[in-house]
Write a structure and sequence with these properties.
13 helices, rod-shaped, two-stranded antiparallel sheet, nine-stranded mixed sheet, 23% strand, alpha/beta
């Protein structure tokens, strides 16, 4: 239905006018409805007549001890109830806007990061964003960023990548790689190992971080699967430091730090520049930065002014 077809008289009818009509229907009396709506009986009658004139049909039969709807008024009053219910729903949605992220943050996280970072986020999140649900999606960074561009997600945590059209980004922390070795590896007993001490041809490397260096067997797998491959093939793999506790608990695997300046990945928070939740996103970024500060293996990246 085109809005231009609404008459001038009907356009002048307010939701308050319709609520007064509804009050008369429910009370069955102008006097009772007037008291309930804090308006004089004469004022209420005038407003009801205004609605009837705008609709071009009487809504109530007057003159008896009880006000009752006309046959046509009964149908119109049902539509008035529907309109007022819709208006109340609209108001509830608008009030939800006062809650961070409109009540839900749809966050995308790579599978190589989510299981190791999110446990530290779940508890403090509702304390900082009361009333907001945290919805999580795991996947590959490129796929998550594509979903962000298509407005399927509100924000994404992913390694720093090239600038994307319409996407804002804030680097959060640097996560170094650690060495994962099979327990019987000749260097497995050392706490620190230099990369130069290892044979690159025995490496099993993740596509996310080392796909373009031409070394080893590049695999697009979970860290648990990477550990399983390492136990089967021997050699070594590079894994993110946040996963240390989980991977170190797996049988047949040992971890060691990389001697010297360890390579790693920078993790950033991405969101759409057009997002209505800009202030909420920045607060969320600040929370993530505080969590990163609490993890000794991470190096915080200072936000630029």
């Amino acid at each position: 239905m085109q809005h231009s077809m609404i008459s001038t008289m009907l356009a002048a009818v307010s939701l308050r006018d319709l609520a007064l009509v509804q009050a008369v229907q429910r009370a069955g009396s102008f006097n009772s409805a007037a008291r309930a709506m804090h308006i004089s009986p004469s004022g209420l009658s005038h407003q009801v007549q205004k609605v009837e004139q705008a609709l071009g049909a009487p809504l109530f039969e007057r003159g008896g001890r009880r006000v009752v709807p006309t046959a046509g008024g009964q149908r119109l009053l049902a539509h008035i109830d529907t309109l007022l219910d819709a208006a109340e729903h609209l108001q509830q949605l608008a009030r939800a806007g006062a809650v961070a992220f409109g009540g839900e943050l749809r966050l995308g996280v790579p599978a190589s990061l989510g299981p190791y970072l999110l446990p530290h986020l779940i508890a403090p999140f509702p304390q900082h964003f009361p009333g907001t649900r945290l919805g999580l999606s795991e996947g590959k960074p490129k796929g998550l960023l594509r979903r962000l561009q298509e407005a399927e997600l509100d924000a994404v945590l992913a390694p720093v990548a090239q600038a994307l059209s319409g996407i804002a980004m804030r680097p959060l922390f640097f996560e170094p790689w650690e060495l994962m070795l099979r327990a019987d590896h000749p260097l497995a007993g050392r706490r620190q190992i230099a990369l130069t001490q290892l044979d690159p041809s025995t490496a099993t490397l993740m596509a996310e971080s080392h796909a373009d260096d031409g070394q080893g067997h590049v695999q697009d797998v979970s860290l648990e699967s990477l550990a399983a491959l390492t136990t089967l093939r021997g050699g070594y793999a590079l894994v993110p430091a946040l996963a240390h506790e989980r991977l170190a608990s797996m049988p047949g695997i040992v971890l060691a730090r990389i001697k010297g300046q360890a390579p790693g990945r920078e993790i950033a928070l991405y969101w759409r520049e057009s997002s209505p939740w800009q202030a909420d996103v920045l607060r969320f970024a600040a929370l993530l930065a505080r969590l990163a500060q609490q993890r000794p293996c991470l190096q915080l990246i200072s936000a630029k002014a």
